[in-house]
Structure formats: C-alpha cells, structure tokens
Amino acid sequence: MTYTVDFTTVSTVGLESSPVAEALAGLRANEARYFRNKYDHVFTVDPAEDAAEVIAWVHRILREEREIVIASRPLEATAFEVEGIRMAYVFYESGLSVNVMYTVEDGGKRAVGFKLSDGMEVPEELASRFKFARQKSKLAGTIRGSYFVVKNEY
Fold it and tell me: Model's pTM, two decimal places?
C-alpha cells in the first residue's frame, strides 16, 4: 500500500524492521520535505514487493555503472518525475537510501546518491569506494552522503 511521507510528524511506518528505523524515517522525511519545498511534489513510497520495477532499475544502474550490489534488503521504493528529472529512491533495512537522479533530456545531469542514516555503519560494498560527507538535518540528525555520475543510458 502506498504511503505518503509526512515530514511534520515523522513515522517509521514501513521501516520497522530496520535497526535504525527512527533515523531512516527521519532521512525519508527529509527527502519528502525537500521535494515538497522545491517542487511542490508529495513524496510517496511503496513497499519493496510492490516496487520491484523501480528497485530493479536502481540495482541495474549500480551493477552496470560500478559493479555494486547492495547487500541489505530493500524495504521501500518510489519513482517519479519532476521538471524533466526522473527520480528513484530505494530505502534499505540497513538504513541506507539510494537515489537516482536521471535527467530525461540528453546531456542533463544524471547521478546516483547514497545517504546513510544516523547510527548505521558504512556498508561494506561502499566503504572502500566512496568518501561520505556529513550534513546536519533537523529531521534525520547527521546524514552522511556520497554520489557518482551516471555515464550510460538507462
């Protein structure tokens, strides 16, 4: 069932099995606030079993671009388009959030972003390959993030 993420009252709905559920919920709410404020877009997520196509697309890009396979189980995902940018998010049980920003027009910005929930370790599959910058968030505490540029067509 689709869940509309509320960034005023943060909820762990759908994320309960994560050992960092509260921090992951804050991270998810932080993304919801960003898209609401910047694009007036209501951020919704679906359980992983209902979002297999989105998860497969994100996993394909990770695998083909950088040979990355995320070990953690996906809990939720979403995909939408705003102002010519296709966005996809996958939220994992470990507390990891992976997003793909893919400008539809040729020559636009295309990247994969990783965000780590407060309190989680850097996943082994990312630890030796990326440096993570820190940012503070009222909703999510300290977020650690990194990214890479997508070079191929998807």
Answer: 0.95
